[in-house]
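Aim 2 progress update. The chain analyzed this quarter is reproduced below.
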Amino acid sequence: MALNGIKIDLRSASGKKDMKDEVIRLGVEFSVSVAESMFLLCDDIRTMLFISLTLWKYVLPEGNPVVERLFLLIHYIYSKDIKPKNGVLYQNGEGKSAQWNLIKTTWNDFVCGIIVLNRLVLVLRVKDCSYDDRLLLSAIAKYKQELKNLEGKLRSAKDVSEANGFARETIKDFAKQELKDEVVRLGVELSLYIAQAMFLLCDDIRSMLWLCYKLWRDAGRRYIYPNSLVLERVLRVIHYVYFKYIEPKNGVYRNGGLSVQIRLAIPTWENFDDVILSLNVLVLVLRQEGRCASGRNFMSSMEEQLKKVEEKLRCGKVVSEANGFRREIV
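Predicted structure tokens:
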């Protein structure tokens, strides 16, 4: 079947990736329409905030990923780009924006846009093959058409939104800021798991330092150029946790010269390497003005590897906490 005029193999991993990339792109297009509607209504802040609040709070349950992203978008656009005007314009004395009649015609489009996008995201997050790929591809095509209809309605007042400051670059700036926030969050998670592994192995300082050195050395040797910010951060986390929290015990218990927990830590090496690689790529994307869509692909890979690290360290979490580990450290 074809997606955007390109034939894809629905059975292959690349075919599923193409569908995921298309849903991400459509999510961006939907965000553009939300932002444009806010600029259309910025002659009456009360109306704009009422519409924004209703879309965020009453279409889907709180805590939903699509709703959370919508809230971040609304907050970013309002706080950064929408400036209340000194003279608020009302039409016919009704206390509504001059563009209210136009926005009323788009209400169902926005509600359906949120609901359908949420369903597409939920389906694509399922790792098994319990859904019909052809039906999913058809749903993506229909959603794409719905977004075109919404865009067409807003186009009639495009000169107004642009006069009020709307530009597609606004969404690019939001996407970059959102990616930056996610990179920071994932970097903190990586630091937490490194610290947890260190506390897990602190019954034998030699084993712990060997693991830390291996993580730092292998990542630098296999993937990353010298002076990488990510490698520097990894080294600083190791240094901070060791000198501030890890205290060599008077009676070091050895099992064949290694920590008794080394078998739990060894399987995490490859996952840590993958996480450090993905994080380094994300930092490069942000520093070199790379495409946020490509950065999101690496972010998904990084999240999967972090989950694997968490699962492997979970068996020894009680030991790490008994040795003094807690999330507040990082």
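The beta strands are 2-3, 6-7. The chain has a mean pLDDT of 82. These observations will guide the mutagenesis experiments scheduled for the next reporting period.
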